[in-house]
Amino acid sequence: MIKKRQRTRAVKIGGLTVGGANLIRVQSMCNTDTADIKATVKQIHSLENAGCEIIRVAVKDIESARLLAEIKKKINIPLVADIHFDWRLAVEAAKHVDKIRINPGNIGCKENVAKVVKACQKRNIPIRIGVNSGSLKALKKIKGRPKWSAHRWAEIMVKEALDEISVLERMKFKDILVSLKADDIERTILANKIFSSKSKIPLHLGITEAGSFLSGTVKSSMGLGMLLNEGIGDTIRVSLTEDPVVQVRAAYEILKALKLRQFGPEIISCPTCGRCQVNIAKVVKKLEEKIYSDSKLFKLAEGKKIAIMGCIVNGPGEARDADFGIAGGKGAGIWIEKGRRVKTVKESQWLTEIIKKIKKG
Ligand code: SF4
């Protein structure tokens, strides 16, 4: 059973509040060149349509930092500037965005962090301290790969986050979020568990550099799923070597599977076997494409459990828990509603019938 959500401090990011009792929010990051405003804004718009609620962009030079002002004007979700190495970029970006993400391992000395804090205080915007296991300050003292246990890695990650927090808090800065990410599930889970036992600061979850679509989604689902199951996490990102829109879809699927968020329908379909005489994969793909490309239909389908099953032997039984769906046969299928067999529908009419039903409610 999913544990009660750990109550963190609420923090405002633009028009959105995260942490506390607020919904677990879905974030992503653009993979465009931030200075290419047209491409970046276009990608953010498609991410907004996909349900992304907070968007982060990489700020690699002062030009990109200045251009954030233009991007901010053209988008509808909170904009986050991701800064590495150069505190001056953070100070410029803080004039335009809704949140700054810095990595304490590479932003430099405490004096530099203090300058970033001052810039954020001026506009009342939060800072996310993003601790990644690959860029810890502690690693600078070590040649090659450290021989630390997962627990030791996690403790060091937490220590570096807490050290940074104390710098910010000494400056009376409280609008802080933290992420503790590794490409290793065990380290990520341990670090977040240790941190949440010590602090009420909201946590952004992610398995960093998780990998390609399949391996990255599995890794992220396992890592984030285990933490969310413990009631830990206020925002999430699924980092895949993929289109960010796919990352957003994957994030919602994790939250949906744990019943932490509703997002469109739940489409259940069988893996097919020798009994199946229909191309179920094609039907499911087409149905998803239709629903996810039509915002009205998407909204109407919200929370509905739709079953697409490959045969009438096991299909009707497996679809019993669905609101409605089809159990396929050769050229036709049985229409099922709340466990009852209602009628026969020609294979060519399946999609039309499902969409009609979604619209009817
Ligand atoms: S529902 Fe039918 S076709 Fe699908 S896996 Fe089960 S037995 Fe096979």
Mean pLDDT rating: 94
Helix percent reads: 40-55%
CA-based shape: elongated
Measure the end-to-end span.
30 Å
How would you describe the overall organization of this protein?
The protein is an alpha/beta fold. The protein folds into two domains: 11-257, TIM Barrel (Alpha-Beta Barrel), CATH 3.20.20.20; 266-360, Sulfite Reductase Hemoprotein, domain 1 (2-Layer Sandwich). It contains twelve helices and 15 strands. The chain has helices at residues 37-50, 62-74, 87-93, 110-123, 150-170, 185-198, 213-229, 244-257, 280-292, 295-301, 315-318, 350-360, and strands at residues 11-13, 16-18, 25-29, 54-58, 79-83, 99-102, 127-132, 176-181, 203-205, 235-236, 266-269, 305-309, 324-328, 332-337, 340-346. An eight-stranded parallel barrel has the order 3-4-5-6-7-8-9-10, surrounded by five helices. Helix 6 links the parallel strand 8 and strand 9. The relative contact order is 0.10. The model has no long low-confidence stretch (mean pLDDT 94). The structure holds iron/sulfur cluster (SF4). The site of iron/sulfur cluster (SF4) has 13 residues, from helix 11.
